[in-house]
Amino acid sequence: MKEYKRVLWVSCSIFALFSLLVVQFFRVQIIQGEKWQKVARMQHQLIVKEPFKRGKFFANTSLLPVTKDKKQSFVIDIPKVHLFADPYQIPQNKQTEIAEKLKDILALDIGDQQHFLKEMQHEKSRSRKMRMWVSLDERNEVSKWWYPYARKNKIASNALFFVSDYKRSYPYGPLLGQLLHTIQENKEEQTRQGLPTGGLEYYFNSFLKGKEGKKKLMRSPKSSLDQGVITKKPVHGADVYLTINHHLQAIAEEEIERGVKGCEAKSGWAVMMDPMTGEVLAMAQYPKFDPENYKQYYQNEDSIEHTNLKSICDSYEPGSTFKPITIAISLLANEELKRKGKDPLFDPCEKISTSSGHFPGRSRPLTDPRHYRYNNQYLAMQRSTNIYFAKLADRVSKELGSDWYREQLCNIFGLGSKTGIEYPLENPGFVPRPGMQNPNGTLEWSVPTPYSLAIGYNLMVNSLQITRIYCAFANGGYLVKPTFVKKISKTDEQGREEILFDNKEEQRLDQFKKILSPYIASEVMKCLKYSVQYVGSGNLADVYGYSIAGKSGTARKIVNGKYSQKNYFASFIGIAPVQKPRFVLLVSMDEPKPTLKHGIGYMYYGGKCAAPVFREISRRSLEYLGVAPDNPFHYPLGDQRRKVEKTFWFKESQELKKLNEQWNGQ
After folding, report:
1. 584 forms bridges with which residues in the sheet?
2. How far is CA 183 from each of CA 102, 127, 306, rounded to the nearest angstrom?
3. If exposure means fewest CB atoms within 10 Å of the residue's CB, which of 41, 74, 210, 389 is most exposed?
4. How do residues 267-303 score in pLDDT, each as one tens digit?
């Protein structure tokens, strides 16, 4: 009986223990299964995020038939890795040796070795970032050393591991730097999205962004350093196809740099635009901004301004480049008066006295570079006389009023408003308003304001605004909408392209506003042609073999509330060629030194420092685009092909010369 009870007790005990074991098994496997699976995964697996490629920026290769099907990237993402350590698995007595070896392989300094040691001493952490942006070759060198070392010292091979990433890279270096900008080195921690520093990277960030995938790594001494299984594929960002041509951009940047150094200017820039479509073909600036080294610019007060795209973000008083707009406004006034049944304000061929520069409200008379008693529209543009254009403005404001004058500037030519270009922080400029006061209590628009406006003072414009107005002169009177973008698209896993945004020419052209009649546009072009050819103020912009129209400008800058006698803003804007315009090009030089160069003159004038840069950019660009010379007898002195009397501008220039002699003497 006692033996029976003992067996029963033992059996019940075993059964109870077994039941407890089953209950515990049920609790661990079923009730708490997810919890312990997570703990196990943390001990043996590491889930890392699989990086995505940020969208690229592509150049416009459609300008030439031989390149239209080729792709050329301004920006790409190249594969890199970040080196991580698992301090939990690195023995303390091996930390110094490992840090020293990594320093040698990666060619780093003693500070990096100390950083490695510090990171490996976080024993409670399973993942510490040791080094960012390790190249694939460097990764291979580390792996080559690490695997045998880990086996020999019985250390888990995944105690050091790499996490893949993509780094922004620039095949053309600083080319187009201010327009593109870049992303910060340290990405957003949770989403791993790049943080743009500005420019197109910022403007198109919503398109360029992608989505991370996931990758599972095993923690095992037998696992290779980069072994893993992708559990969720990354989604790459969309690509932006620009209107900027890489070859034209390189030409513009080379010549702008040469021009800035030649006249010792503070900075300089150029804008090239297709007058028919509004597509920006090149946008150069010097000093340059190198996206690869963006930190250096933002850490230096002297260089931070060079991160801005001055042609869009800065505004200035344009000076004489504004005079063609005064001609257009005066001709618009003639049309307005004709609609009202009144006589026109002036005739382009009218003989107007320019002997006196006295105008109402001005304490000082206006002056001209040279004294001429009489001028008409064409002579005035060729000589860039201030008095003539002020007299036109005087007639317009007296006959039609200040409000009408301002309406033409703002509602017709779009001044005082942003162009809508795809770029952040565009400067809208400034046009004075009748009846409004400045902060100091003076009127924005006073009695002498029209005379200042006529010659490009007392208003502010950005380079893009003035360029698209000249496009209207070149294309017959349409105000184009500037753009940097041809299309935005992304490619799926099967290689199929999905168009997210298509900036079709037909749709864009239908949106262009007709602001000038063909007659007014042709009259302004005629004036601009006289300004360049033969003896015009912009003759240094002339490109042999081609017909060129354009205008130089030299404006004094305001320093401490007064117009400076030493600081100037010089520019030249032109159209090439005149017969079938291929582009409008604006060249600006900010604060060229007022030095005197033998055979040229004072270098602060737009016709002296900006016009030659226009010439070289235009010459090289026309050659690249394969544009045949349309003025084949126009060659320099001494060239046997030179036959001035056969050039398309010679007869008209001779007639102007004779007229000037009749009115003003030799």
Report:
1. 273, 575
2. 28, 25, 17
3. 41
4. 999 999 999 999 999 999 999 999 999 999 998 888 8
